[in-house]
Specification:
8-stranded mixed β-sheet, globular, 4-stranded antiparallel β-sheet, alpha+beta
Length: 252
């Protein structure tokens, strides 16, 4: 594997990483295609340093694993991130922000709570009932949230300033050297009119701006996949092209 900033790794650590490739399985984004993933274990010394470099090279985190698509004859999955300094707030963005003016962001330790899990189950049942998370138990959620070997938080969004105010959205978010990586976001599916998923991304961009962090990583964008089409609304948007990041063009 080639790293865009391999010189940032502690001496000798790059050579000690071991990468593996999964067997082909049905692609969740494009019909009639198979997916494979390259992955490595992050439960190692200097995990944060490794995670930072891997994120810049198109990897995502799931619990203690960093992974990246490694499909044969297909490169449809493209890593994307928002350059926060150049981000343009649209008229629609302002409306979404206004609709959610009562929400209060509260960063908490990456530890599971029953309240979070209830919200997650409600979200998954409504939005992804046939997905891989539909059978998730509370123990699974505890492992998902607490299994991070890197700096990670849960941003809770409550409808009011009090800690007992209703929890309406949450984002499991990794804190990188150069920004936030949004691992998984879930929200109250009965509040569609508030565009909570859109708002949480906008709020991450705003929070990154406040902290002087240049990027918000949104994972993979897949051209032709309705599930991923929403990511194009955040402009400008950078895409990883080989080993360099560049602006995603309108004609792509």
């Amino acid at each position: 594997m080639k790293f865009t900033d391999s010189h940032l790794l502690p001496a000798g650590l790059e050579r000690s990483l071991r990468f593996y490739v999964t067997n082909p399985s049905p692609c969740p984004y494009l019909p009639d295609r198979k997916e494979r993933k390259a992955f490595t274990n992050l439960a190692i010394p200097e995990a944060d340093a490794v995670h930072n470099v891997l994120s810049q090279s198109g990897f995502r985190r799931s619990q203690s694993i960093a992974y990246r698509p490694a499909c044969l004859r297909c490169s449809a999955c493209r890593s994307v991130r928002v350059p926060t300094r150049e981000f343009d707030v649209s008229r629609n963005d302002r409306k979404v922000i206004a609709r959610n003016a009562s929400l209060v962001r509260r960063p908490v330790a990456s530890q599971a709570t029953r309240e979070q899990f209830r919200l997650l189950k409600s979200y998954v049942k409504t939005r992804h009932d046939n997905g891989g998370m539909s059978e998730m138990t509370y123990r699974d959620y505890v492992a998902m949230v607490g299994g991070s070997p890197v700096q990670s938080l849960i941003f809770e969004y409550r409808d009011g300033p009090d800690e007992t105010a209703p929890l309406v959205a949450a984002s499991i978010t990794d804190v990188l050297r150069d920004g936030f990586s949004m691992v998984y976001t879930f929200f109250d599916p009965e509040k569609d009119a508030r565009s909570l998923g859109h708002y949480v991304i906008l709020d991450h961009i705003r929070h990154a701006q406040e902290m002087g962090l240049p990027h918000v990583y949104l994972g993979y964008w897949v051209k032709g996949s309705p599930k991923m089409a929403y990511k194009r609304r955040y402009q400008p948007l950078e895409v990883l092209d080989g080993d360099r990041w560049r602006l995603l063009r309108d004609d792509e």
